[in-house]
Design a protein that fits this description.
With 94 residues, the chain is an alpha+beta fold. It has one domain. The protein contains three helices and four strands. The strands form two sheets. A two-stranded antiparallel ribbon has the order 1-2. The protein has a two-stranded antiparallel sheet with strand order 3-4.
Length: 94
């Protein structure tokens, strides 16, 4: 919740699927390998802010968009595509 608010300004998240999550396969190189954890949430917020991260001096993301399943699938690579498949299965939004 905190990270979403920091990175997007969205502060009205609800978690109807509880605390269930999925993690990606490790990515990155060397000692900086990362695993991302994804939860399912809903929001009524439509406008997203991409605020400057004080540590980076710029936003953490370049852009955003709301997308339906088909558009999202066409935009995502294999690693995050697996997250989308999981989310669609759990939420019934496919």
């Amino acid at each position: 919740r905190r990270e979403v608010t920091e990175e997007t300004g969205i502060d009205d998240l609800e978690f109807p699927w509880g605390t269930e999550y999925i993690e990606t396969e490790p990515y990155g190189s060397g000692r900086r390998r990362t695993v991302a954890r994804y939860y399912l949430a809903t929001t009524r917020t439509r406008e997203v802010e991409l605020p400057v991260n004080p540590e980076l001096g710029k936003p953490e993301h370049d852009e955003y968009r709301w997308a339906d399943y088909d558009e999202a699938r066409s935009l995502l690579g294999e690693r995050v595509g697996k997250v989308l498949e999981w989310a669609a299965e759990r939420s019934g939004c496919r």
